[in-house]
Response regulator transcription factor (Nocardioides panacihumi), 442 residues
Amino acid sequence: MAKVGLCEDDPAIRRVVSEGLRLHGHETVVAYDGGEALRRFADDTTLDVLILDIGLPDADGRDVCVALRSSGQVAPVLFLTALGELHERLSGFAAGADDYLAKPFSVAELAMRVEALARRGRVVAPSDPSDLILDPARHAVVCGDNEVLLTPTEFRLLAAVTSRPGEVVRRRAVIAAAWPDGAHVSDNTLDSYATRIRRKLEQIESPLQLRSVRGVGYQLR
Amino acid sequence: MAKVGLCEDDPAIRRVVSEGLRLHGHETVVAYDGGEALRRFADDTTLDVLILDIGLPDADGRDVCVALRSSGQVAPVLFLTALGELHERLSGFAAGADDYLAKPFSVAELAMRVEALARRGRVVAPSDPSDLILDPARHAVVCGDNEVLLTPTEFRLLAAVTSRPGEVVRRRAVIAAAWPDGAHVSDNTLDSYATRIRRKLEQIESPLQLRSVRGVGYQLR
DNA sequence: CGCCGTCGTCAGGTAGTCGTCAGGTTGAGG
DNA sequence: CCTCAACCTGACGACTACCTGACGACGGCG
């Protein structure tokens, strides 16, 4: 039996899922939109699994995932999406997701995946509460009293890296996350954005830097 | 970078998957049927993820999974199946699977799922805190509180030796692992990299050293 | 229309990585 | 002791991934 945090705007799906999971012996905590999810799930350490809809009225589920991660939530995340599109899945994984399910889906399968996730748990150590905070609502990075606004692309890019603190995120994955529509961007464009983000991090005197690992990708240190 | 055990009877899929994973930076060990999978995967503690086809010539992938689990294999399992049938998925999860992918699938998505599993699966704590840890996520060697970044070639080389702790790995095998594209490298190049890696190990005060065994190869002690 | 911010690209420079070499050191065998 | 081969190691040139400042294109907005 697992405790599940569910964020979904469609009342019908919300009901079916929470009822279905209850029948499989799981407890569900519900949120209606991204803001609600942040308030209810960010600090709840008793949650075993999070289920997030990608298309929410007030935010993108991936941003919600990133925000939850940066506020210390370590439970594994499963994304729901109406689209079966590949790039959605890839950028979801890049945002730090652990699993993915396309609508329409069977509640029985969802329950199975939830159990698999709860069983496995999540390794990534809850990184020390680094004082770098990504605010998806305002597209800003905050460090202590300083803050800078990021452009949408900059935000997605930085989010992809911060979602795995300390780890090296491959260039390919960063591009998938920052350009979720699968647009072709020159390799150099990524470099450019890295420079812009670095300048902004410097501006707020962030102790964490966006380091590049030659031949592999980027890393937050 | 993860080490993946793949069991699949279709040669075409086998090739596409192992080649595709290689392009994403993963190493693949292949088995053709269930028996082969048991022999090769049951005791291999270096595997990060297992990919099993459900429909094998000599056995059901789910049975293979159960058998591997009962012989102590703890790596997360992803099932492949030709059918998108729901009951296949459910019984797969029941057999102890961690993920599932229906054919036809995108290799990019498979790679993403493999990475998600490998990330989660690395739960196994470093048995000895004084041990040397090769961390694929950060492309680094860690020893206690010290860590050094490795270049891609250094990482592959060291990984080849650490994957068989204590054993002597032949020079030919090390070269094959560190230069997977089959490039011709002078014998001296290997010596060179050994020196570079030694310096880095020394830098983090590792108790383990990269020793050379004259006329045979290298060994970690 | 003109202004402004974001976007993607480019060109030039920098520095890390790569593979090789040359000269020194070590070890085995006669 | 000498010889030879295997190995170590510091250095070097070539390559290229990456950095960075600048620019034109485009869309939103007054």
Summary: The two ends of chain A are 37 Å apart (CA to CA).
